[in-house]
Amino acid sequence: MLAVLPLLAVLSLPLRSGAAAASHHNCNAPLVSSLPHSSFQSSSQSSVGYAAHNAKLNRRDGAGGWSPMVTDQEPWLQVDLREQMEVTAVSTQGRYDSWDWVSGFLLLYSDSGRAWKQYRQEDGVGRIVGNVNSEAVVQSKLSHPVRTRFLRFVPLDWNPSGWMGLRVEVYGCSYKSYVADFDGRSSLLYRFNQKSMSTVKDVISLRFKSHQTEGVLLHGEGQRGDYITLELHRGRLDLYLNLDDGRVRLGSRRVAVTVGSLLDDQHWHSVHMERFNRQVNLTVDAQTSSFQTRGDGHSLDVDYELSFGGIPLPGKPGTFLRRNFHGCMENLYYNGINVVDLAKRRKPQIHSVGNVTFSCSQPQLVSCTFLSSSSSFLSLPPPPPASGGFSARFQLRTWNPDGLLLSLQLHPGPQTLELQVSGGRLLLGLHGSGRHRSEATTGHRVSDGLWHSVRLDTRNLHISLTVDGEPSSNIELWEPVESRGNFFFGGCPSMNCHAQIPSFQGCMQLIFINGQPMNLSLVQQGLLGNYNELQLDTCSIKDRCLPNLCEHSARCSQTWTSFSCDCSGTGYSGATCHNSIYESSCEAYKLSGSSSGFYFIDPDGSGPLGPTQVYCNMTEKKVWTVLSHNSSAPVTVQSSSLQKPHVMRLNYSASAEQLRAIVSGSEQCQQEVVYSCRKSRLFNTRDGSPLSWWLDRDGERRSYWGGFLPGVQQCSCSLEENCVDMNYFCNCDADTDAWANDTGVLSYKDHLPVSQVVVGDTNRTGSMAVYSVGPLRCYGDKSIWNAASFYQESSYLYFPTLQAELASDISFYFKTSAPSGVFLENQGLKDFIRVELSSPSAVTFSFDVGNGPAVLAVKSHLPLNDRQWHYVRAERNVKEASLQVDQLPLRFLQAPADGHLRLRLSSQLFVGGTASQQRGFLGCIRSLTVNGVAFDLEERARMTPGVSSGCPGYCSGSSSLCHNRGRCLEKSNGYVCDCSQSAYGGTTCNQEVSVSFDRESSVTYTFQEPFSVMQNRSSQASSVSTDSRAREDVAFSFVTSQRPAMLLTVSTFSQQYIAVILARNGSLQIWYHLQTDRSPDVFSPALNNLADGRLHRIRIHRVGKNLYIQIDQDVHRKYTLSSDAELILIRSLTLGKVTRMENLNEEVLQAASKGFIGCLSSVQFNHVAPLKAALTNRGSSLITIRGPLVQSNCGALAESTSHTLQDQAVTATKDKEQRGGGTQKDLAVIAGVVTAVVFIAVCALAVISRLLYQQRRAQRDSGGASVGSVGGGVKDEHRHGMFTDYRTELHLHNPVRDNVKEYYI
User: Fold this and answer.
1) Are 1035 and 1162 in contact (CB under 8 A)?
2) Are 825 and 910 in contact (CB under 8 A)?
3) Which of 869, 865, 851 has its CA nearest to residue 813?
4) Helix (H/G/I), strand (E/B), else coil: 1300
5) How far apart are CA 154 and CA 118, in angstroms?
6) CA-based, 20 to 30 A from 540: which of 74, 407, 563, 571?
7) Residue 1267 bridge partners (DSSP)
8) Which chain regions cross the lipid bilayer (predicted)?
9) Are the C-beta atoms of residues 1076 and 1143 closer than 8 Å to each other?
């Protein structure tokens, strides 16, 4: 018989017990004022009048408060609340009528007064703000209540003109506690009244503190395969849950969810699990994880009993399947049932296995924390050994991969024994006189944040090292040794250190020397040994990867003081993997100089959607984004009816959310549907009901088959009034034996793309339908030219509050003639964020997250209020802030260690002004994007006085007046294009710059001075610095039939190089030699022969270790380098033959000696266009030309030919897809005519191109001849304006991705 637990009590069960919940609303009673003097302790007191018991709030007893001795280096004030209480707030006050107060402090809490834990706010900050004078009371409400008996106030800062003075009050309430203590061999069994218990909802809550990293808290299982297990594993909490999934059994179960970390710290942790059907929420402390269970079941069926504290083996009381829980549980509730209370009252439902007691035993372990990696140490004198030699053992936990654990001098000397963590593992070294050194290592990793036991012994002429009971590692000795002097743990004073090893940062406990325990309380009292930068009575380890602040599923790793994010494979970059490495649209790729091909786009930028692959068709004036699906071929349908219709589901290369983002961000989208029919109707001719239909992106049924008017049940022929039979709205509805066609283009954006096609009228004799659905095609990027003009200083646009707690990025373009103005501002109660033009030549990014105002400024040597477009991008995350303006160096500001993380804003976001209507911006702002979301400035401007939509000027539209990174500059009577950042020339930066090389030809661009591509950021945490992420961006085209061949090399003064060559078989090879002590990385993205006399376009982009390569229109291929090192001190870039270069690989040397015979076109390396520089900067010391070099238009001719062939192929393919279902002869005839017309057009174009080429060559030959390295020059390209000349750009340390996006005009 199955029984379902009553759930009325469960529905309102909170995290804490019912008694606690009842009093929680009024849990703010003062707890200190009535305590006796014995409840107060301190590290010291200045005199009797300054004793700890005088530290009650608003009291004037004694000297009016507590003050420690001036010589007390680690002062603290401790309060014993006499019993476990729930604390919700604390108040502080300075010493009465004095200059003594505490302005900042830490709050520690403990159950026993021995092992302490630091209270931290939600964002991990431990420092609590104190007083600014001696009389005002400052109350600090705790972000989460703590249940404790002992509190310790640790002053951090005080009045610099006085001394520490403190009076305190603690607020909270008592609560009912039901505690059970498990000794690791015991458990409680809650037995059901029936054979099994079936529940559709479960609520389990408890608090626990554990002595071990492993142990089962709860387990239940049923015969049909259901089970639930809560288990500690490696200090984390694992939940195993299975509902009616017969494929999963207990022996091979998988972890459904893992929550929490460092849960074996002997402090209380709260657990709350809720399950309703298959939906599960698991919360540990403040971290919640939600998931759905596997299987088809919705109820949990458990047979006989639930066990708490272990999994008993059936039929063998006292034996267990897995390691039992060792520690205490408090207020254990299962579906409203207080399990501990039932056990304590010896109710028959509860069966106790082993020794379960109902009071929590307090551990006697006392930990200490080594705080500094440079100066921490603990010096202890060794007690006499029982026999010769020495021994030491202790437990440690750390995140750091390196640090000195133990150092001591040995006799006979001089000999030093050092035990250290090296590369995450233990290394034992014995240093003798001279260079004599012996070492022993362990394969056990100890820098994982868990406790590890270490033992060091001398016996039988060897020193043994043992970790966690594993087999020992040994150092052999020539003679017996003994320790001499003190044992130095965690580090040592500089005069005692043998080597420059960083001090240990982490925790130690259970320190034994020569078999005797070391009493750390005596150390704290100054009665034993010596120490520096040591925190006693607590282990202050913190998991900085919980929660994981790395974005986009990046992997987090940490040390004691910081964390880092591995962005590999995520498609994102930056300190927290916030920035997408891909453009947001095909339009952006086109404006950066790219050509047609497959690309990854990230439609929401730094948002959560992620990148998706699309085809960007740039052969037309409009840039089309093409997304394909799984059914591009024509589909033939027969024998379908309304009762059994044919259904085709279309799966796209992007997710539904990505599709929605792409469609909504585009100006226009369309999708072609071709329906060929024979006796197959689309609509019932009697009542007009649809016989076939399609589903839109939301799954809604649609029955219109063309155009952009939803709800009109018609085909395109009806809208165009050209149906075969005008009595019907569709050609197919004429229902004839002849083939008919209804082809329409769906263009209503809100319904696209088509997700499903349903055909229901092909079940009659002779009925047949052939349909095809084309890819989704969109053009335009609405955000790029979305602009607003501000012409009143008091005007602004307002938007909802910025969602930027942990990370935010803001980017936009502006142009103005005003000297200053606020671009945007958002404020909170104390926090704020602001971006402004602070002077005619400076942009400032300022914010405050609770650590005080932070300011980043970028200053330009040229005015920014020149009425030209300028790009701004500001980003702030938990690790750093950055600001970029145009191509100026990217500025960084490191976030302070252990500071506030969350930016808490509450007001509206003001754009173009501030809430005070002062310092408003006058000018234009466009393409405002925040966290990947484009703001519609034009719509908001239409309803705001003082602001107009759009921006006047030639360079303010989406017509792309300047191409290939060219910058559009406004003039009084027009515009000009600045092509200095482009590898192209001409008035609009669209003319190929091509040069023909022979075997001896080369062009070398020498950088003006040795410098790093990326300047190193400062090591100071608070300093501003430039970008240190290694980046290169290389693009060029070539035509050759030679192999092997040298295309391009980049060399540095530090013997690094990049080489792009064609191998002996004609395949492309890219060589990266970043670390001179290692072999170079070699990548072959295409094994086919590229020395085929055709034009090939190569794009290479590197961000750190990630290398992206594109050949022609192929998809970007991603590779991983062995190093993310920078190119340090770039020397030169060479095209063609390399005569002198050291450290080259043999295969690269062979290609370098062969040179290059063919055409190189539009070469770009970061900001440098070497071919263009060679043609326009004759005589420059930066350019060296060797051998014959002839300017030509070979790149343009080859590209036009390839485009013609490509367009012909695309046209043929598209024509085939659209008419693949028709087998009629008339379609074949039409296709033949079209092919003939295209062929004639291609021939005519080829003849015209040949004539133009001959005419231009004749003109060039009459004007000058080819030149070499001696006595010659290079023919100037024709200049049409003062801004089309090339200007050498030396700022290679600017980020390439931002360079690509700088100018859209």
Assistant:
1) yes
2) yes
3) 869
4) helix
5) 10
6) 407
7) 1189
8) 1227-1253
9) yes
Q: Whose CA is closest to 228, among 212, 217, 214, 236? A: 217
Residue 393 CB contacts under 8 Å (≥ 6 apart), including other chains: 453, 454, 455, 456, 510, 511, 512
Q: How far apart are CA 555 and CA 572, in angstroms?
A: 12
CA distance linking residue 262 with residue 562, whole number of Å: 17
- The 10s digit of each residue's pLDDT in 1199-1247 is 555 444 444 434 444 444 444 344 333 434 344 544 555 555 655 555 4
CB neighbourhood size of 155 (10 A)? 22
Show the tokens assigned to 640.
Answer: 């379908």
- In angstroms, rounded to a whole number, what is the distance separating the alpha carbons of residues 993 and 493? 65
- pLDDT surpasses 90 at 376: yes
Give the total residue count for the chain.
Answer: 1305
Three-class secondary structure of residue 753 per DSSP: coil
- Measure the CA–CA gap between 540 and 1253, rounded to whole angstroms: 76
Q: What is the mean pLDDT of residues 542-571?
A: 92
Q: What is the mean pLDDT of residues 28-57?
A: 94
- Cα dihedral value 1245, 1246, 1252, 1254, nearest 10: -170
**Cα 521 to chain centroid, rounded:** 44
Q: How far is CA 13 from CA 204, 218, 276, 342, 1047, in A?
A: 9, 19, 14, 18, 71
Rounded-to-integer distance, Cα 470 and Cα 1088, Å: 54
Radius of gyration of the chain (CA): 38
- Whether cis (ω within 30° of 0) applies to the bond prior to 401 is no
Q: How many CB atoms lie within 10 A of CB 799?
A: 18
Contact between 1040 and 1160 (Cβ < 8 Å): no
- Vertex 296, ends 290 and 299: CA angle to 5°? 70
Spatial contact of 219 and 320, defined as CB atoms under 8 Å apart: no
* Assigned token pair, 967: 């910058």
pTM of the model: 0.77
- Integer Cα distance of 363 and 509 in angstroms: 12
Whether 1250 shows a pLDDT value over 80: the answer reads no
Q: Is the pLDDT of residue 2 over 50?
A: no
Give the relative orientation of helices 1194-1218 and 1225-1263 as an angle to the nearest 10 degrees: 170
Strand partners, 411: 482
With cut-offs at 50, 70 and 90, classify the pLDDT of residue 1177: confident
Cβ–Cβ under 8 Å, residues 138 and 92: yes
User: Terminus-to-terminus CA distance in the chain, angstroms?
Assistant: 76
Cα within 13 Å of Cα(1305), Cβ side: 23
| Stretch (H or E) spanning 22 | helix 18-24
For the chain, give the percent of residues with pLDDT over 90.
Answer: 49
Residue 543's pLDDT band (boundaries 50, 70, 90)? very high
Mean pLDDT of 628-642: 91
Question: How far is 743 from 458, CA to CA, in rounded Å?
Answer: 89
Q: Which pLDDT belongs to residue 1049?
A: 93
Cα–Cα distance measured from residue 150 to residue 76, given in angstroms and rounded to the nearest whole number: 13
Give the whole-angstrom CA distance, residue 233 versus residue 216: 9
Residue 862: C-alpha distances to residues 839, 841, 1301 (Å): 12, 6, 20
Higher pLDDT: 45 or 434? It is 45
Strand-pair category, 891-894 with 880-885: antiparallel
Strand partners, 170: 90
Identify the three-state secondary structure at position 122.
coil
C-alpha 70/C-alpha 75 separation (Å) is 9
pLDDT tens column, 1067-1096: 999 999 988 888 899 999 888 899 999 999
C-alpha separations of 930 from 153, 271, 799 in Å: 42, 37, 11
Give the number of other CB atoms < 10 A from CB of residue 1037. Answer: 24
How high does pLDDT run on average in the chain? Answer: 83
- Max distance between CA atoms of the chain, in angstroms, equals 113
